[in-house]
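Suppose you are handed a protein chain with no further information: no name, no annotation, nothing but its sequence. What can you learn? This example shows the usual starting point.
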Amino acid sequence: MAYKYKIYPDRDLLVDILEGEISAADLQGIYTHEIGDPDFKHVKKCISNIENAVFSFPVQELKKFIEFMIEPNPDPEFRWAILAGAPTETAFAVLIQRDPYFSDKVGVFSTLKACTAFLDRPYQRLEFEDPDFLILA
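A reasonable first move is to predict its three-dimensional structure. Written in structure tokens, the prediction is:
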């Protein structure tokens, strides 16, 4: 697994990039790390780039991860755009989107342009290469 993220406080935006084989435990660790970042308080929008990720766990584990992410006091402004490529990963992302808690908060897209339109935040593909991403795996 390869994982990096960056918070853009001026845009209230978190961008993370996941590559390689990803387990449900990896997703839980990523989420825990991101919400523990002191700058996470600025985050209202998120882009997750999973174009080069391979999810290697059963749907039941994804459902447990969805339950883990649900908070009792959700931020009504929070939106999460998932940039997906492969069919399996797209299907997993759609399962997150279909959860009643996330139905109006999550969008699954095949283009960055659609992600940025959903979030109403500017982001360019070149920014995925910013040198100050925090690389954690």
